[in-house]
Design a protein that fits this description.
single chain, about 150 residues, mainly alpha, DUF5684 domain-containing protein, DUF5684
Length: about 150
């Protein structure tokens, strides 16, 4: 009787175990990187591992409103806003468009650079430490302290 590669299920487990170990190590390393990125931005590291809460904190780090999270649920739009989020994240840490491209295409490496490079520091939402809530488009229609909703400033 001739035995082929597909007749022996042990072969599959021998090939699958190293792949699962590698994927687990990559996931742990990614978790550590995001933990450090959140700490650099002034938040607690554990906030990065809570699924929806971590995304809300990431939006806070880049200075965008909570409803951007809803845009990630729309197919096609989520890709555009995901890349835009990575761009704003790199700007928040004082990096440019080249670093954004690195985060998009080589995220595993560039997230580690963002996390562990001591020369890269958090500069504020989208890189502007003096950014006010009034400058954000999410502030449209809100009343700010000291402003009446009926009184116009001239």
């Amino acid at each position: 009787m001739d035995t082929t590669f597909t007749d022996n299920p042990a072969i599959y487990s021998i090939l699958l175990v190293p792949f699962i170990c590698f994927a687990l190590l990559c996931s742990i390393f990614s978790l550590i990187c995001w933990w450090k990125i959140f700490q650099k931005a002034g938040y607690r590291g554990w906030e990065s591992i809570i699924p929806i809460y971590g995304a809300l904190i990431l939006l806070r780090i880049i200075g965008k409103p909570w409803w951007w999270l809803l845009l990630y649920l729309i197919p096609g739009v989520n890709i555009i806003f995901g890349i835009w989020t990575l761009n704003l994240l790199s700007l928040s840490f004082g990096q440019g468009t080249g670093f954004t491209l690195g985060l998009v295409f080589l995220g595993f490496i560039f997230a580690a650079i963002l996390a562990f490079d001591r020369n890269i520091i958090y500069k504020g939402p989208a890189g502007d430490p003096n950014r006010q809530l009034q400058d954000d488009i999410s502030a449209l229609g809100r009343n700010f302290p000291g402003q009446s909703p009926f009184k116009r400033e001239e």
